[in-house]
Specification:
Length: 233
């Protein structure tokens, strides 16, 4: 592992880049350094988990195929310790593989080969979402038996607390702001991911599935061909 510095004199966002292909990892690091980030590199599963625990990055760029154990397992382990935005890189084009990555806590994904410009844009978009969430006032949303603490970013259904990833939390909070109103998938993409792409609606579907698994199948109603509505009672 090695650390690459960003700008000085201000709080620098830390990004952990994990890829066993050193050339790709170095190229990603160079682009992110140019964007002003401090970048730490890891090249295998165990090293990535150790680096995430020690460095507490603000965001992780994570390849799926890694020695030791794969990126899906890395994502599971780091999210279990501390919710952090994850941008997953995959050489696989199978939609199922991409949805599995989103299902274990990744917030977004890029398929190799990818544009460094697009990668940087996705990183900035994910961090803007986190920053907006941190600026919210100390308040809670209560819808039926669902309670969302926006300041502490904690969620309960009844007496049971659910552990959500950062993006799952933001998606739930967005739906809870307008309970029982149907929000289009494309609108959710713009509001939560900061980008609009019809192909990205699969990411919305995957995270809704995760929320149902953690909080109950009856929580979010599907309006076929349109989007989703929060129906907690």
């Amino acid at each position: 592992m090695e650390l690459s510095g960003g700008a000085t004199g201000q709080a620098v966002r830390r990004v952990l880049v994990v890829d066993d292909e050193v050339t790709i990892a170095e190229s990603v690091a160079a682009r992110l350094r140019a964007e002003g980030f401090a970048v730490e590199l890891a090249h295998d599963g165990p090293g990535a988990v150790a680096a995430a625990a020690a460095g507490e990055p603000d965001l992780v760029v994570l390849d799926v195929m890694l020695p030791g154990f794969d990126g899906l397992e890395v994502c599971r382990r780091i999210q279990a310790e501390r919710p952090v935005p994850v941008l997953m890189l995959t050489a696989r084009t199978d939609e199922t593989d991409q949805l599995v990555g989103l299902g274990v806590g990744a917030d977004d994904y890029l398929t190799k080969p990818f544009s460094m410009r697009v990668l940087a844009a996705r990183v900035h978009a994910l961090l803007r979402r986190v920053e907006r969430a941190a600026e919210r006032e100390n308040t809670s949303i209560v819808v039926g038996d669902l309670r969302i603490d926006l300041d502490q970013r904690r969620v309960w259904r009844g007496a049971t607390e659910a552990r959500l990833t950062p993006l799952e939390f933001d998606l739930l909070a967005r739906l809870a702001q307008r309970p029982r109103a149907v929000l289009a998938r494309e609108r959710l993409l713009e509001d939560i991911w900061d980008w609009s792409d019809a192909a990205g609606t699969r990411a919305v579907d995957s995270h809704v599935k995760a929320l149902r698994r953690k909080l109950g199948a009856d929580l979010i109603r599907t309006v076929h061909g349109v989007g989703y509505a929060l129906d907690a009672r």
